[in-house]
Protein: NAD-dependent epimerase/dehydratase domain-containing protein
Amino acid sequence: MPISPILTGASGMVGRAVLLECLDSPHVERVLMINRQPVALQHPKLTELLHRDFTDIGSIRGLLKGYDACFFCAGVSAAGKSEAEYTQLTYTLVTSFARTLHEVNPDLVFTYVSGSGTDRTETSRMMWARVKGRTENALLELGFRAAYMFRLGVLIPDTAVQSKTGWVNTFLTVLRPLFPLLKRFDWATTSSRIGRAMIQVALHPPEQQILENKDINRLAAQRM
Structure:
């Protein structure tokens, strides 16, 4: 049976890649894309909903009913941010969004784009790893039908997507000749594989909740 996901972060590289996979997949019936700013993309499957404050989605909760998955791809870099600021933009934002969504759709499958090295003990010396770990813990405890933490490591773009961060695009341009080689390794994944893996876990929720690049690649390769 086709799924109908809610998707955030479509203006970023990961979110745009996941969105493109959803629109191309026969296993996805419709997509509700929630953004702070308009995304220049139209498709018969796609509905765009603009909402500025992801920490308070109470005013749009009535529009969230009837969906069976959420691909939460919105996120920010910790570079240049204090722990308090990064916590507000990561833990507070994500968990506030997820709590309201759980109230509306408790049987939903929730996927969250985390990062390789995230620390669920919340004791790491790396600030971002502690905050991401706290976020993962909260999401896994909310009570969704299933929840999955996509801990991305080396990411290779293989669709028409770009990062919002300039230096990342420059770095990827330099590495582009090596992409065919890097794709062979389990510690690297691609933007399209992430999209396919998210669709896969929404269709057939596995037991494993923490997914590293090798797990994402395995799920992406499975038949839906």
